[in-house]
Every structure is written in structure tokens, then in C-alpha cells.
Fold this sequence. Notes:
This protein is α/β, with parallel strands linked by helices. It has twelve helices and ten strands. The longest helix has 25 residues, at 21-45.
Amino acid sequence: xxxxxxxxxxxxxxxxxxxxxxxxxxxxxxxxxxxxxxxxxxxxxxxxxxxxxxxxxxxxxxxxxxxxxxxxxxxxxxxxxxxxxxxxxxxxxxxxxxxxxxxxxxxxxxxxxxxxxxxxxxxxxxxxxxxxxxxxxxxxxxxxxxxxxxxxxxxxxxxxxxxxxxxxxxxxxxxxxxxxxxxxxxxxxxxxxxxxxxxxxxxxxxxxxxxxxxxxxxxxxxxxxxxxxxxxxxxxxxxxxxxxxxxxxxxxxxxxxxxxxxxxxxxxxxxxxxxxxxxxxxxxxxxxxxxxxxxxxxxxxxxxxxxxxxxxxxxxxxxxxxxxxxxxxxxxxxxxx
Length: 337
């Protein structure tokens, strides 16, 4: 992928008669930036890499999103473990990195894991990457980390791109509480059961989905979670054709139905109100939680999840109960501690 292939690679035309003063200023700024990046990369590349397992996040689309530290780690690793060597080779070649690679994915993990643990035990420096984004997030690797940690081996993380978090920042849905649910089951029956199990969640729900199943999944979400639930569909994040659609689940399902969707997708669903969860039911649930010794914060969290109602509404009623009032309203300037 060249700069021209990336969203921020488009360049404005140069006026006739040569470069403008603004263009000259941009060139100077670019040269200063390049020099600073060079110094940072050189300093990291010349520092010996610690032995252990290095969890390295890689771009989800735009190769320019990789961090300097990630590149320096990949360049110094004894071995780069990846889902698909062909995919990872693109990233390494883009930045002039030539290191041994070995596949590590769900089909060979049981066989490869003991071998990698043994190499780590001998002091190897191994980098683990996924095809895109942060390893272990809907990707293989957590058992390798668990066994390495249990064996007393060093495990390091290099944070970076994540499709789930990138989509969350674009969705326009609450971000104070969210639940990443990964990929829903491919079979409709199992998928619908999983959605039903998540229906009571008050957090913003985040799902990954393949383009071939996006229409079916949105239809099931709209039917089982509520047609009016606020939602967003993000696809091709950080790429030229990045797209985010926002609206009620029913509108998104209708808009996508019959369309050919390309690129990996992220579905986000905001909280909705559960029918029948009135103020009295909320008061009773809160009273039972307080009777069990729950703190205000824990009681609000529990009842919000159990009844699938808005957290602010539960909090107001909880404050009223604590104050000995029955109107279910907090003081005008009351805030949660």
C-alpha cells in the first residue's frame, strides 16, 4: 500500500508557478518530523530487545498506523509468529524488515505452543502478531500468553490499533461502558441464542462480523434486541472506503438487506429500555440489592444489567431510596460519587 492508497495520502495540487509558501512550510515540517522519527527508530533499533514474548499490535488497514516501537520490536525479534505469513510479509517488507516468520493460528496452536514455550525458555525473543489489530482480541494467542506467564517467562505488550476501539470512537454511542462480544456464531440458531443472552446488557455491545453474514446478523439483532435500539455499522476502517452508518437497528438492517458488503465489519449496539421495567420494579430490585449489603455503585450496576434499563434512571431511584424518598428523583445537583 502506497501513501496514495491511504485516506491521508491525498495531496492538494500545487499552484502554477512553483511551490507556495504554505507548501514550503509543510515541507519543512515534514522534514523535522522525519528526522524525529528517524532518531526515535534508531534509538530503539540499537537497544537490545529483551527476551520473552512480545505481543505486537499491527494496523487494521492503513499501514501508516503502525507504531515506531512495534516496528523496532519486529526488526529485532528472533522470530515473528503470525496468522498468515503472506499477510504479515506485506507489513515487514513495507518497512524493510527481514525476520524469520512462523504461522501460529487456531489450526496449529496446540502443536506449536509447546515448541514456542521451549524456545522462550531458552531466551528467545518472539513477537506475536495477528493479521490485523491487537493480538488475542478475537484471535489466537491467549493460551500462549497464559502458559508463558505460568512458566515465569516475560510477556510484553505493544499496544496499538484495534478495530473494536476504533469503531467505538466513531459510533456516537456511549463509551463509558462497553462489552466486546467478538464474532457471533455463524449458525442462525446459535447466533440468536447468543443475542438473547446479551439482551439484558446495558453496555454498548461490540461485534465483529463477516460481510457475508452482516445482513442476517443485523436482522436478528433488530428482532431480538429491539428495532429502535441505536446502532452503528463500521467497515473498512482506516482505509480509503471507510464507512460508518448510524441509526436504529431496523434502519441499518433494511439499508444493508440485499446489498453486497465488502470488508470486515464492526457492529455496535447501544443500550435500550426493557419493556415493563417500571420505577416500582427498579425500586424493589434496588431494595433487594441494598438488603444484601451492596454498595450504591454495585446495586446500580447490578440492577441496570438485570433489568436492561438506563443507568442514569436506576441511579436517580437509588439516590432517592438512600435519601428515604419515594419519588425516584435525585437532587437537582446530585452526582454519583
